[in-house]
Design goal:
single chain; alpha+beta; SH3 type barrels; three-stranded antiparallel β-sheet; 15 helices; 51% helix; MscS_channel_CS; membrane
Length: 439
């Protein structure tokens, strides 16, 4: 009977108030309300009445209107009322004792109707008592408080909604947290196993780091996909949303992504390893670390240089220690009167006495150039490729070659220059011609 009375009352109000009937025909978009539902029913049993973003009270269904539709109509009327003026008159209650229903009005404009069904739903004596309670709550909400109080109320409502959402989503949050913790443990284990396996098979620290990091990252990607699924997020839809912005992200992170991709290629191809001495463009030194973003080089004077992997990947790389041995050379000029074969024999004998000079390939002495005043010989021999040993052995080789040539009395003259004077004054020319030869 209560439902039938509610339906008849709704029909009477639709006839008596054209504006009410007109607003019922419109379906505004759903507002962010907190709704209570009955298991097995699609529509909510109760819906919130919202004022300034805060839920004030809840209403149930009436007649052909569901709770959501009824709350939307009331919310729209309150929003329209507040947008028309800074101050809103107090809401009054008009009670019809014969029919046991009450209306909440402002300046003879009906905001909502409270019927007997509402009092039964909320356990109140009659519709008038419930209408007075709701009118009092609406008047307090419509009374614009000072800014500080308004901000505090909004913060309180926001925190309350967040707590309600957190409580309702607590199982999903706990499940996602368990998945993340499990993923963290599995990722660390996989990284250790991959690093150990790489140490046994590869023997190169750069590749070991690459394999362990790729395994670690792959486990985390799988873990995040599962965690998002536990939270109820559609990973395919998320990828689609990311795809819409992939072009913008690609342009903004172009350099970062290119450095990471170049780092993966460098660690996979391995043009150099940690500890190698290389030259890249204007930089030369020892490789101390190869990361996914940059390569670190320690120069021979002790400075650290971080080179982006994209620049390393696109530059010419000279690996001085790719081979354990490296050839060096010394240029020496001997006199034209000297015996070349004697000079060669003396140089080769002297080099054979140096322990750090490689016996194979054997040192060799070549006639490089017949210069103006000397015969230039190029002495080639192989030494350790590391820079310190390379420089030291080149220095020792040059010293012992000079001492060997001095031992067999082969001169190493400096360049001789001949000066020819033309159109000299007669007085200077006669003095030069009459001067005895030097020596």
């Amino acid at each position: 009977m209560a439902y039938l009375g509610g339906f008849l009352l709704g029909a009477m109000m639709a006839i008596a108030s054209p504006s009410f009937a007109q607003e019922e025909m419109e379906m505004p978009p759903p507002s962010p309300t907190t709704e209570e539902t009955v298991p097995g029913l699609t529509d909510p049993f109760f819906a919130d009445v919202i004022v300034q973003g805060r839920p004030i009270f809840q209403v149930g269904s009436v007649g052909n209107l569901t709770a959501r539709e009824r709350a939307q109509i009331i919310n729209r009327r309150l929003s329209s009322l507040m947008s028309q003026s800074e101050t809103v008159d107090s809401i009054t209650v008009q009670y019809n004792q014969a029919e046991n229903y009450a209306t909440l009005q402002v300046n003879n404009r009906v905001i909502m109707t409270v019927i007997e069904q509402d009092s039964e739903d909320f356990g109140v004596e009659n519709a008038q008592v419930l209408a007075n309670q709701w009118a009092e709550e609406l008047n307090r909400a419509l009374d614009r408080p000072p800014l500080a109080i308004d901000v505090a109320q909004r913060l309180n409502a926001t925190v309350r909604n967040l707590l309600q959402d957190a409580i309702s989503n607590l199982p999903s949050l706990v499940g996602a947290l368990i998945v993340i913790l499990f993923t963290w443990g599995v990722a660390i284990t996989v990284r250790k196993i991959a690093y150990t396996w790489a140490q046994q098979t590869e023997g190169d620290r750069s590749t070991e780091l690459l394999i362990s990091r790729l395994g670690y990252g792959a486990i985390w990607v799988i873990g995040w996909v599962i965690a998002l699924g536990v939270l109820g997020l559609d990973f395919a839809a998320l990828l689609g949303a990311l795809g819409l912005t992939s072009v913008a992200i690609g342009f903004s992170l172009k350099d970062v992504l290119s450095n990471y991709i170049a780092g993966v290629i460098l660690l996979a191809v391995r043009p150099f390893r940690i500890g190698d001495q290389i030259a890249i463009g204007d930089y030369e030194g020892t490789v101390t670390e190869v990361q996914l973003r940059a390569t670190t080089i320690k120069t021979y004077d002790g400075r650290l240089i971080y080179i982006p992997n994209q620049e390393v990947f696109s530059s010419s790389i000279t690996n001085n220690t790719a081979s354990p041995r490296r050839r060096t050379s010394v240029i020496v000029g001997i006199d034209y009167e000297a015996d070349i074969n004697q000079a060669k024999a003396a140089i080769l004998k002297a080099l054979s006495e140096l322990d750090l000079v490689e016996r194979s390939p054997a040192p060799e002495v070549l006639v490089q150039e017949l210069a103006a005043s000397t015969i230039n010989l190029e002495i080639r021999f192989w030494v350790d490729s590391r820079r310190a040993e390379f420089l030291e052995m080149t220095s020792q080789g040059a010293q012992i070659i000079k001492e060997a040539l001095d031992g067999v009395h082969i001169e190493m003259p400096t360049d001789i220059y001949t000066l020819t004077f033309r159109n000299l004054p007669p007085s200077i020319s006669s003095q030069i011609n009459s001067s005895p030869p030097a020596g």
